[in-house]
Amino acid sequence: MKQKTSVSSSRRKARKAHFTAPSHIRRKIMSATLSKDLRAKYNVRSMPIRRDDEVIIMRGQYHDREGKVTQVYRKKWRIHIERVTRDKANGQTVPIGIHPSKVCITKLRLDKDRKSLLDKKGRKANKGKYTDKDTEA
Predict the structure, then answer these.
(1) Per residue in 111-127, pLDDT tens?
(2) Fewest beta carbons less than 10 Å away: which of 32, 74, 78, 120?
(3) Could you write out the three-class secondary structure of the chain?
């Protein structure tokens, strides 16, 4: 049985919705996981990536490279990281696009909006969880 009647389960429609998604929805889709220490600190598993976050590449040819995010290219679904570049034939260096699902955020750039998002997501993580004190009563 279908969970939500308002949402299509058609692969064709899901792919169309994904690849024609507007920028504000692409932001949410372009999320990256948080490192283990950040995950423990904030009780949050992943966050939408943004400029000036520090990341480590986990997969692919450039894995184990660390750097700061220089650009979030929502149109191409890629992020550019400093020092992850390629030299062209004419000598010019160009950044290499990395998909945000293949990186791990090691340091967040926090402002008031981001802090409120972390608080909101962190509260949600504890919702419905029972402690030993709750079960004793």
Answers:
(1) 999 999 999 998 886 77
(2) 120
(3) CCCCCCCCCCHHHHHHHHHCCCHHHHHHHCEEEECHHHHHHHCCCEEECCCCCEEEECCCCCCCCEEEEEEEEHHHCEEEEEEEEEECCCCCEEEEEECHHHEEEEECCCCHHHHHHHHHHHHHHHCCCCCHHHHHC
